[in-house]
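Limitations
The structure tokens in this dataset are predictions for the assembled complex, not deposited experimental models. Users should treat interface geometry with appropriate caution, especially where small molecules or nucleic acid strands are included. An illustrative entry is reproduced here so readers can see what is and is not provided.
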Amino acid sequence: MYLEIKDVKKSYGKDSSHIQVLKGISADIEKGQMCVIQGTSGSGKSTLLNCIGGLDTMDSGSVKVDGKEIFGLRPDEIADYRREKLGFIFQFYNLVPNLTVRENIEVCEYISENPLDIDELLDVLGLTEHQNKFPSQLSGGQQQRCAIARALVKNPALLLCDEPTGALDSKTSRDILILLEKINAKYNTTMLIVTHNNSIKNMVHKVIIVKDGLIKKDYINENRVPAAELEDL
Amino acid sequence: MKRVLRKRLPRDIKENFPRYLALYLMIAVAMYLIISIVGAADTIINGTVSKANANLVEDGHFTTFIPLEAYQEELLTNSGAIVERMFSADAEMPDGSVLRVFGERKTINLPHIDKGEKADNMGEAVLEKRYVETHGISVGDTIELFGKNLTVTGIGCVPEYDMPLAETSDMVVDSSLFGIAIVTDEQYNELVNDDVTENYCYAYRLNNSLTHNELKEMIKELDFDYNKVSNIYFREMIDNILSDKEKLQDGINEIYDGSKELTEGLSELESAGDSIQSGTDEVFSLYLSQVNSVISQMGFTETLTKDNYSEILDNYAAMTGSEEIAALKKALDGLKAYTDGIKEYTDGAGNAYNGSKELSDGISELKSETDEFLDEVFELDIANLTEFTEAQNDPRIYAAANDLITNKKIGLLAGVVIMILFTYVISVFVIHKVQSESSIIGTLYALGAKKSDLISHYITIPTIISLAGGITGLLLGFSEIGIPIQMKDTYNYFSVPHLEPSKPLYLMIYAVIMPPVVSMLVNRLVISKKLSKSALSLIRNEQTTDIRGRINIRKLSFINKFRIRQTLREIRTGLTVIFAMLVCLLIFMLGMNCYTVCNNIRNDNVEYTKYEYMYTLKYPAENPPENSEPCYIESLSKTNMGFTVDITVIGIDDTNRYYDTIPVKGRNKLVISTSAAQKYSLKKGDTFVLTDNAEDMSYAFEVADISPYSAGLAVFMDIDSMRELFGQEDDYYNMLLSEEALDIESGRIYSVTEKSEIIRSSGIFVNQMRGMYTMLISLSAVIFCAVMYLMLNVMTDRASFGISLVKIFGFRNKEVKKLYLSGNTFIIAIGALITIPLSKLIMNTLFPSFVANTACGVNLKFPTYLYAMIFAAIMLIYFAVNSVLTIKLNKITPAQVLKNRE
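Predicted assembly:
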């Protein structure tokens, strides 16, 4: 297993405001798999993603990536883990506004020991002609493609996507999903996609449904539908 | 809407309490200092002028060789000038200091008694307060003046010695060396006897019917009977002058008498010539008759005359060959030649007589004219007036007020500049807040809020902070730790009455109104544009890319590109830091310039004072003592920037041992000291106009050279040229320099200055100004640290999302620091490299006006290493702030991105 999640628990607040967000979640994801974590708002899916990404700490449990335990790592070890293994894609792109498309990608290239070729990435993502534009000069889809390029330039083994199409229209969402599919195929990148969109689960290898901090259901999608053919995006 | 928004204000203050507290404290401290400095200046300016007027301060004073006659004083008074004697004598005290003793004052320059009572009886004295403080004297103590013990009954000051300088040319007040004592007239007369050199000074006050110049002319024209002068040295001087006059007159008289005798002699000679002439004619006629008788006996018939005898006798001699006839002719020729000679001689004697008569008349006329001329010339040279100084040209009068006028102006201006700086700092926070609340603002717009409502909302807290800071500063400034503390500097230097701190209305308005108004204006200006976007644009938090983003830096490395982008993004904050740096450096340079000038004065005085003793003489002896270097000094004045300062013109020769200056011959040639060159921005070839106020004369000198000399404001002339220019004798001198004490009668001496005194006095400036420059330097450092921290902190806050983001990507803390903090190093370094010389240049330009009333050079040169040290200090402060921010930066977690999303 590339990603092993065991009995992860997470709570916020104290006393009367105490909320148990994750109540013991366990799951396994294999290398190169695309996995969707789906759930309603407040179900704990994003918290789970954050715990996997080392953005948030777990109260207990275990997360192993490529055999390495994340729980209990020091901040600098967590930074190295993210640096070496992870890529992040957010709903609102989170591009650095005063950097151009290329420079935003270079941010992650800078810390990577074996980065992908930026020109090739720009080409793959259709951003070559926009590479010197600033985020404010791009459409939402273009910005999200830039964010994907930034996440991919490190050639991460695990790509964590938090509502990657949440801020996009249907057509653009499809384009982004096609792109993710293509990347998965090309770079064998393991992907964990958090979404509340019901259609996306049809294109991935594995689906985890979270509800009230627990896994309600997880299964291998035997009948994958290419992103280009997804409906109701 | 406004009411609802208002509810946010306390929450916002609570949320950002440390930041707002820091700004409030900075404004309060700045206003406190400004209010206390300006308030103190105002108190001193108004207070000393008012007290001086109440104590009937003089409009001017003049000194004379001998006291005016009572009728002369009355004449001046009747003409429109109240004149009162301010006679004084300098008493040397056991510790080497000098107390200038005055008699009572009745109508002018009345003393202000701070402690005790005025001296009403014999054996009592009032002492000047600075002298008393320096010497630890109290009311009731006994002092010895001219061998007599007097009890100190009071301590106070007099308005004409507001700055208690012994001489107006003195550079610095040194109350350990000089003070004033006032005794009764009776006591004064007992103390000051003939052996004591007395200064005959009169103070005057004019009414509207007489001008200063008219009074001066009147004094010059007053009769002056120098025979009444009893001072032996003055008599000697007068006798010298008169003996010269008498010698000249004796010479003319001798010529006159000689010519008269010559005329009389020639007259006698002319009269005798006629007798001789007629005698010789008679002898010739008798001899011719005898010859006629002889030749008639020889048978010749012709009669010989004086005109024909020669021809006839020659014919007879030729016809007869008679030797007798030839001998007769020869005898007649000889006699005729003698007669002609006698005639010529008597004619000459007549001419000589006529000529000598003309000569005698001429010499008589010369004598009469010369007598008249000598009377005129010698009368002018020994006019009774020796000095005439209007109060406005006297550096001792209103000195404290003049000194603080600049403080007041600078204080008020600095307050506005510092408020603009602080307000700009606040505005950076406001902008940051506006940007971070962009979507909220857009939503409020969408809900119907007006731009004016939001502007009011966002400028409310800065306005409240500025108002609170201003009020606090005002209260502190007006408290016991405000104005009274600032006034101490003045009390420690000037001799002014104790004054109650004034609390002028304009300062209250300045402190309470100016900060919030400046804050409102600046903040309104900077956020207005930010709030002018459409609601949708604000809701989306759309970022526009302005010209800063379009800079092409593609070829640079990522790190450099990132830093440049970050710098450009934070350019406003960066410029605020640089602006703060400039303001702080200006304050710092003001402090450093104060220190530098004082320190340079101390060092220069030590370096350039090569003599051990300097004697200025009132009545120089005919020959200077051995082992002394005679010089000639004149005190002229220069008015610059509204202040009149005495300039000492020193006449020296090429071989003077104590000055390295080589004087240039010529009545209009000056070699100026570097101190004078610095103070008046003079260079070789310039014209330097100096004024003799007593004589109402201005001299335009050519700056022939600049000599490295900085002990006081001095200029040098060739001593012979100077004697010629000022109409002194060829061997005149009035200053002696030597390496050892000279044996000179005390009555001849005006003052003695020892090198050790000069060195000690020079150090006073450093001590006196220490509080001022320490405060300025500390204040600048505190403001700079605070502003730099606040600004770099806000930069970090603004970048926190980006920092959080790159941390998500796996950037380590060192790399994050490199991206977000290290770029500031270049801004600070470049800013420092620009602002250090710029601030120095600005302050060097302004500084001379701050010390325009001080008779010293303005050597503002720093050693080069000091610039390096300032730069190093700035960088050190920056790195200290950076270290604090690094801790903050390390604490920023990746979760911030998530918070933002949520």
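Some entries come with short summary sentences. For this one: Helices of chain A lie at 45-53, 75-85, 101-110, 118-124, 140-152, 170-187.
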